[in-house]
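Moderator note: this is an archived Q&A kept for reference. The question asked for a predicted structure of one protein chain; the sequence and the answer are reproduced below.
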Amino acid sequence: MTTQTINIDRFLRSRHIRIQHEWGWQVVADLFLAGTGAGSLVFAILMDWLGFVGEDIRPLIMWGPLFVAAGAMFLVLKLGVKIRFLNTILNPMSSWLSRGFYILSGCIVSGGLLLVASLIPVLGIDTWLGITMADFSWIITTLNIICFVFAIGSALYTGILILSVKYVPLWYTLLLPTLFTVSALASGSMLVIMSAQVFDIFFNDAADTAAMITILVYANLVLVFLEAFALSGYLRSRYAVSEFGRYSVQLMTQGKLKLMFRGGVILCGFILPVMLIIAYLVLQNIYLLLGA
């Protein structure tokens, strides 16, 4: 009798195969927050380079490093703040968990400096100091480039971290960094969209953000479809690669995790966002995007 014709959960118990629980929810929170924050920084900087970001809205879309910092804090909680944490940061070549600390730190610091710089004209600090931001344009440009590189690195890192666990067949594939990067960009672009919407709602200045939101909405729609294709290809490849890879896929799609996978990933992660985005494009109601 094959595993397709029996209950996958009962089959795995009979083989004494246990689900991976080692990393815990803290690492999951780190991956989500770091990915979303990094993705939002990528799009915020791109929109800035394309000339869609004014001084008033810049602080509202440059807060991605706060998400990355929150994710890093969950990583610290997982590692602990004593010997285990110190061993990690002092041995950057020992693992991708260690390298990730420096990648995320670079993203947080460079992104934090960009956020502070964006607040200077909004708070009138430049007028008070008798300076103009144009005097420091080369510094902002340099920070943008550095932050963009670290943001891309942070988005890639979330997938590379899991890929580095070679003994788990479900995770050991180059498709995983691709999937996580696309996911980070999709969630990050939506964070920028939501931030722009908050600006519109409170400052009634939709004309300043309409073009940017339109571009990001179409970009997000494309990314969601790419994410769905990447996930489909990832699951098919893992199902075919080995016996344990097949068990892992069946556990998600047919076993005890199927409700979480179908409801959380398929319904909430793909179907609802696509429906709400299409509805927004037809009805032009910004509140639909808040649901997406």
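Archived answer notes: Confidence is low (pLDDT under 50) at residues 1-6.
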